[in-house]
Amino acid sequence: xxxxxxxxxxxxxxxxxxxxxxxxxEMLSKLxxxxxxxxxxxxxxxxxxxxxxxxxxxxxxxxxxxxxDVGWAILGVDGGATGPLLGAFFLAMAEAVGDRDAxxxxxxxSLFAAGLKGVQEQTKARPGDxxxxxxxxxxxxxxxxxxxxxxDIQALLQRAxxxxxxxAAATAAMQARFGRARNLKEKSIGNQDPGATxxxxxxxxxxxxxxxxx
Amino acid sequence: MRMKKFINNPDDLVPELLEGFxxxxxxxxxxxxxxxxxxAAPKPSDKVALVTLGGSGHEPALSGFVGxxxxxxxxxxxxxxxxxxxxxxxxxxxxxxxxxxLFVVLNHAGDVMSARMAMDLARxxxxxVKQVLTHEDISGGPRDNPEERRGLxxxxxxxxxxxxxxxxxxxxxxxxxxxERMERNMATLAVAVSGATHPGxxxxxxEIPEDVMVVGMGQHGEAGGGTQPLKSADETAExxxxxxxxxxNVKAGEEVLVxxxxxxxxxxxxxxxxxxxxxxxxxxxxxxxxxxxxxxxxTVQEMGGFQMCLARLDDELxxxxxxxxxxxxxxxx
Lengths: 214, 333
Prior knowledge:
heterodimer; A: 214 residues; mainly alpha; 2 strands; B: 333 residues; alpha/beta; Hypothetical Protein Tm841, Chain: A,domain 3; 2 domains; six-stranded mixed sheet; 8 helices
């Protein structure tokens, strides 16, 4: 049972998320070629290396500072909507974590819920619109449900990763209503959304980062 | 097929192009901070400043509009992608002054999001910034649903008239009102005949079959419907102008500006042929072609096609359009 996570665990999660994205960045760009301009993988790659740089440069082991710096670093990626959305996720988490240096399962679930809220403040996209929201929302809800059932942190992240992957896969059947892909209208059906896929990779990374050390 | 472009490491596209751009136009612009494009000779600080943001790969837009009579600062993003909020905030801080800052944003998801976040942060810092959003692409949806309409080359007339108003010492609210009036009174439609290559990824964007043209393409060739057999210059001019006149509800006796913006592979020869037909059609309807502008202002690499921007002019907008400016992409003396 993993009852709580602290700074070192969060660093492992983030680094592992970066690895998961890096391993698949070519696939992300390929998915983006269908509806966008084929650069989502490179944008995510830049976001993840920005993130790794601030992790490596961190001088104080505080969750709040870590999450804030990661959020700001991702915002700094000049890659269209990806930076603001993903950056807002971590910035909102930083605000929510406050001065705590460790989080139990419920704390982790509410931290991610705060992150989701931060993203929702930036976009009107809802589940079904074929965006990152289709992976993020189910992942956060799955965490919440697992925490309510008394699951430990590994269980939370496992459920979240599964829900995000499922949500991302489901975007293939959807018609895009946001971003550049929406101009394709019904032609956007059939391709998995790159943003949702990125989110599912990040959650897969979070889970792996914790599992490897649990 | 490997893309045929004279580039180096794709990761260096933006810094390298900005370095060359600033060098080529060093009498007018300079680079500062984190690759912000500013005027070589700053505008007096008692006048409103104009700032914009937008992806790269569309040269000369948008940094080409930095200079006397138009923009003060442009924040270039990555290829076809908006800059992130930190650099936009940096630009707003740099531009901030008592007279205020007019922030011109083209309606594209990333630009809007980045701009909003930067604006929120700027307001928290007490910066005096007001935003105008351009969304004049009529293929996006009806006029009463502006959120669906993208910002295309219409940003140029908006920046031109608002920039002239700022130069003349008008207040921020007056500059904003002028920008918004120009925005409300313009409409753009794009036609594409061939796709482009993303210079960073080598991906072909917007593959267009032979013998067809697509009316209603967005800035990057995002599909927008309107695929039809390729037509002559005269027929294409008529299809596009008719749609624009309808959208703006232009009546006989009114004066308009028509801009034809080549997006990369379409030649000036073709644009001149189209403009001539536009003039004939307007004459038939009793609408005066008061001003026109033909050239490459907002491109999409080697994409073939052009954007037609129609704007209704009044006396004040006309005078502001005629006011002098001196930028890399547009000079009026």
